[in-house]
Amino acid sequence: MDISTICVHGCEKKFDTTGAVAVPIFASATFAHPGVGRSTGFDYSRSLNPTTVHLEDTVAALEGGTSAVAFSSGMAAVSVLMELFSPGDHIIASDDLYGGTVRLFSFISEKNGVKVSYAAPRDIEKEIKASTKAVFIETPSNPMMRVTDIAATAAITKKHNMLLIVDNTFLTPYFQKPFSLGADIVLHSGTKYLGGHNDSLSGMLVVKDSNLAEKIRFLAKTTGGCLSPFESFLIIRGIKTLAVRMERQQETALKIVNWLSRHSAVKKVYYPGLKEHPDYEISAGQTSGFGAMISFSVRDGQTAAKILESVKVIKYAESLGGVESLITYPMLQTHADLPESERNARGINDCLLRLSVGLEAPDDLIADLEQAFPTT
């Protein structure tokens, strides 16, 4: 079945007998037992809820996984993910990574005895130790839009009997299928493109291995960061338009990329769909689209500040992937907790801006950027 159809109709599993077209919100914290030692399959919503199960099975179907677990946020999903590891274990992560994930690794995982080191895609195998249990990649990366060859990385992890974890938030299963390239776990901040409306928080972990699925479900139930039925309903609703949103947002992004590339105040545009992007061939080979996330550097910090304070249609805000276009200052927002030296080494300085392209008319977004840029 085509992914667009799965987006609209979701999984085949139904828990409602009324014929409701929209998935009902099962707003119950607990469920009655039909008898001693008997269950309807639902006991307590922290473990399983019918609305949330529909969402989980839908996301698993979209990704090509066997099981998914929904969480109250993307960071709640990462927190449970890291509970798969024990003190003394070592993880290799992309050296360009969402700042919130780095913050969790630095302040929580390290405290709990899990060691994390960072490497460029080409250097991952050099970082492997006897204690290395997994490789965690985000591709394209946030905010520098670097691309990791998933299949090549999977060959490394399988050779060394390690897990490959892929954050697929930017491209979603509509444009990128990490499992088909060898991933073991796929992560999403469902707050972003899956939900798509900047109105709900969620996170997802998707797996193919049933034993791994059981471990994650147990950890989710135990730690309690479950997604509520109402939030599950909102993400299900968002997924219904995922295919058309991704196509339209990418189409608009390409027009904005071309405009930015010609602007005299723009030093560099970071977008995997540009043929001059160093990872263009890798991206083109493992995805069906380049997405709608753009980062770009302007000539100085004053220019960046002027743009942020002058946009009108585009909103100066954190997050991404919604129908509204958002512009973000990574240095002060998504990556503010990284030491300045680390930010600068990654290119996350006062000149860098990140743009999440929404569903507004392309000409209106370009006109908004044009009036926001300094005239001289």
Account of the 3D structure:
With 376 residues, this protein is of the alpha/beta class. The chain has two domains: 3-239, 3-Layer(aba) Sandwich (Aspartate Aminotransferase, domain 2), CATH 3.40.640.10; 243-372, Aspartate Aminotransferase, domain 1 (Alpha-Beta Complex), CATH 3.90.1150.10. It contains 13 helices and twelve strands. It has helices at residues 3-9, 50-63, 74-82, 99-109, 150-159, 172-175, 210-223, 229-239, 242-262, 280-286, 301-310, 340-346, 362-372; strands spanning 67-71, 90-94, 115-119, 132-138, 163-167, 185-189, 203-207, 266-270, 293-298, 315-316, 326-328, 352-356. The strands form two sheets. A seven-stranded mixed sheet has the order 1-7-6-5-4-2-3, sandwiched between helices. The protein has a five-stranded mixed sheet with strand order 8-9-12-11-10, with helices on one face. The longest helix is centred in the last third of the chain and has 21 residues, at 242-262. It is globular. The mean pLDDT is 96.
Topology:
Layout: H1 3-9, H2 50-63, E1 67-71, H3 74-82, E2 90-94, H4 99-109, E3 115-119, E4 132-138, H5 150-159, E5 163-167, H6 172-175, E6 185-189, E7 203-207, H7 210-223, H8 229-239, H9 242-262, E8 266-270, H10 280-286, E9 293-298, H11 301-310, E10 315-316, E11 326-328, H12 340-346, E12 352-356, H13 362-372
Parallel strand pairs: 2-3, 2-4, 4-5, 5-6, 10-11
Antiparallel strand pairs: 1-7, 6-7, 8-9, 9-12, 11-12
Helix pairs in contact: 2-8, 3-4
